Amino acid sequence: MTHRIVVLGAGYAGANAAGRLAKRLHPADTEIILVNADPEFVERVRMHQLAVGQDLKVRKLTDVFANTGVQVRIARVVAVDAERKIVDTDDGEIAYDTLVYALGSTATGVPENAHNIAGKQAAQRLHARLQDLGAGGTVLVVGGGLTGIEAVTEIAEARPDLDVSLAVRGELGDWLSDKARQHLRGAVDRLGITVHEGVDGRTLDAEVTVWTTGFAVHPIAAATTLEVSPSGQIVVDETMRSVSHPDVYAIGDAALAQGGSGSTLRMSCASGVPTGHLAADAIAARLTGREIPQNKIGYNGQCISLGRNDAVMQWVTPDDKPKPSALTGKAAVRLKELICKSAAWSISHPTVLMPSRRRHITTASATLETAL
């Protein structure tokens, strides 16, 4: 009898977890099913580029996972029954022995007439709206985090004929080091971006508003018997395993997880990939009776694009606190591109550059995994 592992979501976290599981476990006694609503991998860290009409490489999931042992099922998850161990999709039910929940996040608090760039369709809608906007049109980006800064600089660079502004609650880049903040201010000035700081309750008019104030997880987990945080994230232990249901793992934005230093991980690709790796390694270890891996997840830097020709790499401590040093300009552009391309490459080659031995599961370990 095979042990079925169902992975929900093929973003950075889920796709990496599925590929790593396929590399670790023998196909004779395991079945890995990857469920995703979109037939293509969405390179979410480049949605600001898609919003201004730049072409992104198409990576079909069926092509990516061909001959890997991972079954791709294109379907939208509707609900999860954690007691019956069944996932309900718009294409039928899927039973599981082990579940990896990686459904990610989406934009939150977006007003009815505003745009966002939390996903592919949203970014494409914004692109269509920007195309309709003539010279002198006004664009307001709300939110001064990484997403907001990348969006506003990309739009301003791609459309210098528009009047582009950014609204932030505090001061622009107030979490960055002095060096990074100084470079950021120079970049927005060079691009002609008007920055409204200390905005709280003020009314600002614009023909197009882009909302980037934060992300929220999909409500599916909160509707289950899984233990979730007030934010709706699944509460997990140091191996990304649900604290209430040991046959469920949560990774990426969907998990309320801690890194190796004990600090809570932020929603980001930088968290998604390592949590996916850790969960896959922990599942494989438990099923094959091997040593459980330690959580050593930590951060190195925050990459911020400032259009196609400028960037900032803010170096940080493992618990994500900014250091005084930062890389800026062309060098930062090259480094960020290397990081983004490496992350996408790991998706396109899900079962390479890892130990090639696929181990059989043990009956005792499989029973323990599902019964605890």
Describe the structure.
The chain has 372 residues and is α/β, with parallel strands linked by helices. The protein is 29% helix and 22% strand. It contains nine helices and 19 strands. The protein has helices spanning 12-24, 47-50, 61-64, 120-132, 146-158, 178-190, 269-288, 329-348, 363-371; strands at 3-8, 30-36, 70-74, 77-81, 86-89, 92-95, 98-101, 105-107, 138-142, 163-167, 194-196, 208-211, 215-217, 234-235, 248-250, 255-256, 301-305, 311-316, 322-328. A hairpin with a 2-residue loop joins β5 and β6 (92-95). α1 runs parallel beside α7 (269-288). The longest helix has 20 residues, at 269-288. It is globular.
Please outline what is shown here.
With 372 residues, the protein is an alpha/beta fold.
Primary descriptors:
372 residues, alpha/beta, 5-stranded parallel beta sheet, 4-stranded parallel beta sheet, 9 helices, globular
